[in-house]
Amino acid sequence: MRLSTILSLSAVGARTLAQSNTTGQLGDAVVVTNNPIGKEALAVLPKTPFFTSGSLEGNVKGSVKATTGAKGVGVDFEVAFSNLPKEGGPFIYHIHVNPVDASGNCTNTLAHLDPFIRGEDPVCDSTKPATCQVGDISGKYGKITSDPFRARVHDDFTAMSEGPGSYFLNRSIVVHFANKTRITCANFFTTPQNNASTTGSSSQYALTPTPTNSMTPVTAGVGALSVKSLAFLPVVVMVLVL
Ligand SMILES: *[C@@H]1O[C@H](CO)[C@@H](O)[C@H](O)[C@H]1NC(C)=O
Ligand SMILES: *[C@@H]1O[C@H](CO)[C@@H](O)[C@H](O)[C@H]1NC(C)=O
Ligand SMILES: *[C@@H]1O[C@H](CO)[C@@H](O)[C@H](O)[C@H]1NC(C)=O
Ligand SMILES: *[C@@H]1O[C@H](CO)[C@@H](O)[C@H](O)[C@H]1NC(C)=O
Ligand SMILES: *[C@@H]1O[C@H](CO)[C@@H](O)[C@H](O)[C@H]1NC(C)=O
Ligand SMILES: [Cu+2]
User: Which positions carry the signal peptide feature in this UniProt record (predicted)?
Assistant: First the structure.
């Protein structure tokens, strides 16, 4: 073999090794294809922050709503945050392994949801979400870069039926400063299915009344909906122009 061939082969080998570190010890995250149709869960930030110094008045407001992805594949997340600290952004948010305890201590939510044992470093490459930690939502789909901030993102790798490690409805969401210090956190709880037996119920969010889930989610939900309906506006305008 010629030296140049050997050199280029070993370069390929080194690159493969380096790349293999950017995914989990158990490989890339697996696409979840069997999420229950119509499942819905919500995490609503509490009234008081975990991080109490700095410019924050009250707490960051907001919620993360999770609904089953089309055909049961993955999850659609609708996130809405506002009243963010004036300093220390862009803010990041993740699904953490443990739920928040009754004291609201975000430290005890432990690390990011990471069933494929990838670790935090190197940082998530958003062009290859399967190689990122399953819980690293802002790493995969974008940091919180405005106030208010709203986004609708789809994730293939999160599970809404119990069993796999990527199941997250028994876990929490944590919002951090850019330097990873935890600002606030909230648990997911499932909301009633969107079917005839439950529509119109006003007490639907009182399912798991923990101290950390006491804020009403209605504003966030309505806001996100109007963003969605605004998305149709350019289409309508285009049709009128034509
Ligand atoms: C990849 O992982 C190995 C073993 O864990 C480690 O020694 C090496 O430094 C890592 N390489 C990179 C580029 O992170
Ligand atoms: C992280 O950033 C925030 C906001 O700038 C600051 O208040 C906090 O002290 C920082 N934490 C660490 C560990 O540096
Ligand atoms: C939160 O929990 C951690 C770890 O148990 C502890 O060190 C810390 O003091 C707690 N923080 C607050 C504000 O209670
Ligand atoms: C959450 O559920 C998953 C899957 O059913 C399970 O493996 C995990 O231990 C649970 N975690 C907590 C904190 O309850
Ligand atoms: C609503 O959804 C729940 C949970 O899947 C199901 O048990 C119930 O039968 C449904 N009700 C109707 C009226 O479809
Ligand atoms: Cu986090």
Answer: 1-18
Q: Is the CB of 8 under 6 A from ligand 2?
A: no
* pLDDT tens per residue across span 95-119: 999 999 999 999 999 999 999 999 9
Q: State whether the beta carbon of 195 lies less than 6 angstroms from ligand 5.
A: yes
Q: Measured between alpha carbons, how far is 242 from 233 in angstroms, rounded to an integer?
A: 14
Question: 161 CB under 6 A from ligand 5?
Answer: no
Q: What sign for the dihedral angle of Cα 92, 93, 99, 104? A: positive
Question: Residues 164-218: pLDDT tens digits?
Answer: 999 999 999 999 999 999 999 999 999 986 544 444 433 333 333 344 443 333 3
Q: Which residue has the tokens 């901030």?
A: 149
Give the mutation target among 52, 107, 174 for probing the ligand 3 site: most ligand atoms within 8 A of CB. 107
Contacts of 123 (CB under 8 A, 6+ apart): 139
Tell the CATH topology of 21-225: Immunoglobulin-like (2.60.40)
In the numeric block, which tokens belong to residue 226? Answer: 């109007």
Q: What span, in angstroms and rounded, lies between the C-alpha atoms of 128 and 27?
A: 13
